[in-house]
Amino acid sequence: MAQQDSKKIFFENLSGAGKAIAVLTSGGDAQGMNAAVRAVVRMGLYVGAKVYFIKEGYQGMVDGGDNIREATWESVSSMLQVGGTVIGSARCKDFRSHEGRLKAAHNLVQRGITNLCVIGGDGSLTGANLFREEWSGLLTELVEQGLIEADAVQKYSALHIVGMVGSIDNDFCGTDMTIGTDSALHRIIEVVDAIMTTAQSHQRTFVLEVMGRHCGYLALVSALACGADWVLIPEMPPEDGWEDKMCQKLSANRAGMKRLNIIIVAEGAIDRNNKPITTDYIKDLVVKNLGFDTRVTILGHVQRGGTPSAFDRILASRMGVEAVLALLETTANTPACVVSLCGNQSVRVPLMECVQTTQEVQKAMDQKRFEEAVKLRGRSFENNLRTYKLLAHRKPESELPVSNFNVAVLNVGAPAAGMNAAVRSAVRVGISEGHKMFAVSDGFEGFYKGQIKEIKWGDVGGWTGQGGSLLGTKRTLPAKHVDKIAEQMRKHNINALLVIGGFEALLSLLELSEARGKYDEFCVPMVMVPATVSNNVPGSDLSIGADTALNAITTTCDRIKQSASGTKRRVFIIETMGGYCGYLATVGGLAAGADAAYIYEEPFDIRDLQANVEHLTEKMKTSIQRGLVLRNENCNVNYTTDFIYQLYTEEGRGVFDCRKNVLGHMQQGGAPSPFDRNFGTKISAKAMQWLSQKLVETYRKGRVFANSEDSCCLLGMRARALVFQPVVRLKDETDFVHRIPKEQWWLKLRPLMKILAKYKTSYDVSDSGQVEHVIHSRPKDSDASVAM
């Protein structure tokens, strides 16, 4: 499918010729930094610039010599899946001094470097901005000392800086997610899931300390993702007397037949008097007051290690390319910027605005202005905290509003990881709103058979980390059984419906909406939350379950490529799921470093296949040892996985051999990723609150009656915001034959994958080039990961 017409950059007219770009990683390491380095190097070389590694961060810049080396295309091969930073990172005292920065300037000028891409935290980026401001003065000093020629001052008059934030703490204001945060959450959740099994066996309480000296993001989101009983973070210390409240909560949970307790503590957790709250203090408290068998686990640097998640690889790759574009477009008067993430879009924000806002958070905490500190962290952080409180702490029955409304929740379509988290969230928010919640087993098939029962707060405990669908899900559509479903709606007095599922869920709501003319029982508020690994639901850029599937694909591709390590040159042909939607193949290809990804949305023929084989053959003749080709399962009826495997085998004979692998249903299985747990939790909570609002609005003369378009909606993430959209209005956006949206945002990522695989292609930058301000530009519901 051709890219939509817009401002585009082509290889011929986007030129970095004569420019030198240097990339460095500074401060603490974070998973995904290597993906960012790889993207900067390859995009820089693609546009004709010279690109340099600066090893060991600012220390390497000060020391010079072999620490500053020219990079080649091959020098960043096989680093996408490696954690940490292969070019090294170090804290540098020398760069804090004027003499150190003078040495650094000399080393850069000697190599003609006037463009810096800095990957690090706020300290690293603040240092880069100071260096930029001092640049002309430093060059003048170097001339006076006779270290450089006078004409160098004019030739290298300006230093251009672009930053990318690499930090597992997600403590930088101005971006929804920093590189490394999602991977750190993966490490935490892996440990928590493992600990939960042993805690349950022995009826133990576990106190877990996670990183976050000044920021509680990791603690808060991991608590939300695993359903922790209590969480302590520096931005919002607990009220005085919290110890008794916490013990009451733990005791009540045990009385409710729960066999374990999980308490998550940020390493920088404090009380209202700024006094540290330690894990040992909490352990002693629980043992003394409750007598529970209690253990402490400090995760430490495990959180920094390991392979980067699919999210971090994609985020870092997009940011790296955007950083090069920003450097090429910058002028002497352009302020230093940071490439950041807003929703699912890359944006540029002024570096010092971000740094100042980040510093204001710490000032607010120091001055005990905790509510303000939470607000300064951003809407995503506020929403996480609000949702955690809503789901973790049940109000006494006497404090719950009485609505007398019955709300049914069901799963429809194929199972997707994160569905259970969405159900748990819906049930608990519904109960908090005063509704009676009903669970429907096996989708609409169970609905018409009467498999409907009330579900209570405690019934969904521990559901967040469970894969698949505990309610059961079927692809059955309601149209054939609409009379029986209406009868069950009447029998159980169902006043609202929450449907969690994929394309079948959308079709189901369309059918129920049409049935309103005949059956009053369907004249109730209905909302759908998208959940499918295929990510093919119109009206939403992301679906629950797609991130878990991407991680399964990425991890498997890593292992498959590693299987060829030390052998002769080999190309792997891998088939992914997705129906006719190429999301998994494309984005999975970007995360795994694929050479090609064949999808239905971008038609291809035998000439394209031949060109891909020739391209791979040329790469294999140099130093690339392994190739990776992804194919969406329904991309072409004739060019099957077997056909492509046989073609590559024949045409690559004598240069490389081939292997094929069909990933199949492993993409649907497994525990949900942190992203899917939180996306499911937060989007479902929002859907439930919308239903509550609609129930009040449509309650007239003792009954609920809702038959307008806007009472039957899909809640989806559109670019930067969560939006409720009437399902009937989504018809025009939908290709019903192939079960995909007519327009899909991720198609803009395909040229990015091709560029990083050394293809000449166009790259759409219609969304690039806009510098946005940190706070005022964000839409109300902006949330990268509304999830995260």
UniProtKB/TrEMBL annotation:
Q: Where is this region: N-terminal catalytic PFK domain 1?
A: 1-393
Write the record's keywords in alphabetical order, separated by commas: Acetylation, Allosteric enzyme, ATP-binding, Cytoplasm, Glycolysis, Glycoprotein, Kinase, Magnesium, Metal-binding, Nucleotide-binding, Phosphoprotein, Transferase
Q: What is this protein called?
A: ATP-dependent 6-phosphofructokinase
Q: Which GO terms describe its molecular function?
A: 6-phosphofructokinase activity; AMP binding; ATP binding; fructose-6-phosphate binding; identical protein binding; metal ion binding; monosaccharide binding
Q: Does the keyword Transmembrane apply?
A: no
Catalyses: beta-D-fructose 6-phosphate + ATP = beta-D-fructose 1,6-bisphosphate + ADP + H(+)
- Residues recorded as binding ATP, renumbered to this chain, are G28, R91, C92, G121, D122, G123, S124
